[in-house]
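Hi team, as promised in this morning's meeting, here are the two structures we talked about. I've kept the exact order from the run log so nobody has to guess. The first one is mostly here for context; it's the second one we should focus on when we meet again. Sequence first, then the predicted structure tokens.
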Amino acid sequence: MPDAPKLTAEQRAQALADAAAARVARADVKARLKTGRLTLPDLLAEAEQDPQLGGMRVSALIAALPGYGPARSAALMRRLRIAESRRIRGLGPKQRVALLASISDPAESGS
């Protein structure tokens, strides 16, 4: 396994700052989803332009939706055949459509 790249102190500090900013942005999005101030279609559109949001795991996104938790999120992802490790930017067009349809149709989501 190759060694990690050698970074200067400035590069390391910048990488840490970037990672912290991404965590804050993702936490904000999850809070907005949970309270209903942000919709799933809006988030998916926003994630196309924002690499910090695009790197968010789909499982975390679903679990942040009202009425969903880790178990229900995992069940939905299995049904839609979305890998646990999948990130928003890695969703295919058919997966996006299926996810939006499942979330917008409560009868289909299993509630």
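And here is the second protein, the one for discussion:
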Amino acid sequence: MADVNRELSDFLRRARSSFDPSRAGLPADGRVRRVPGLRREEVALLAGVSTDYYTRLEQGRRITPSSAVLDAIARALHLDETARLYLGQLVGSSATRGPRGSSTAVQRVRPGLYQLLDGIGNCPALILGRRTDVLAANHLARALLTDFERLRPAERNYARWVFLDAEARNLFLNWDEQARAVVENLRLDFGNYPDDKAAQELINDLKKRSPEFRQWWNEHRVNQRTYGSKHFRHPIAGDISVDYETLTLPGDPEQTLFIYTAPRGSASRDALDLLSSWTGPSAPEHPTEKGSSHERQ
């Protein structure tokens, strides 16, 4: 609980300090601002709560505000929908948490989903689970990114690959942007399971080994990108730009399908087709078929 309270305290302080006071519409009081952003009493005023109440909340005290109070604070700080959800997660609001399984449960991909991945083999596709673990990928995703199935189970993690693999840094034309997005998504996921030991170990390891991860993690930004674009400079196929869509899978809301596409007739589509012809769909080596599952070692 203490860790969650510290996360809440840090999140609110950073949201308050990054807010431009001129956007709040508050009357000038003639006081000199010695620190950036809003003062605590100004946030409290805008949210319609007492300064003492907001101060205790920002200090991470053991209080559980109502959804209405959280909404008011989110409006005062101009938080977007994702940040509002994360705020609810940090205070443990039952209204913002859906039904969840145990954070220690091993995630497995259904056989039908492997067939789906193989069936859309002309588009790179992969399934991510909790803490950005890579649960499955089709042959074209492995050819475009990396062959996660050849890694040790503990290393089959998208965030770990993006930050610690030199090939990933060279692959993304806009590595900084993509890596920041990974951090912001991982922090949102961590808000669901603040006591997940595997997630804590991953985060601590990345903070030790990557100065960029450590810096961006400490900025406490959250975001959930459900679609967008990625730009690659592939060592075999050259420059490739793809659009991606994410789909939460029925039956397991903690498994997300990512599908990368390129317009028909485009140079990127031709590059993907060329990459597919060179690699070719091989017999799938599904973890369940090898007598193992995606477990932390």
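Starting points for discussion:
Residues 2-26+34-96 form a domain with the 434 Repressor (Amino-terminal Domain) fold (CATH 1.10.260.40).
The first strand starts at residue 125 and ends at 128.
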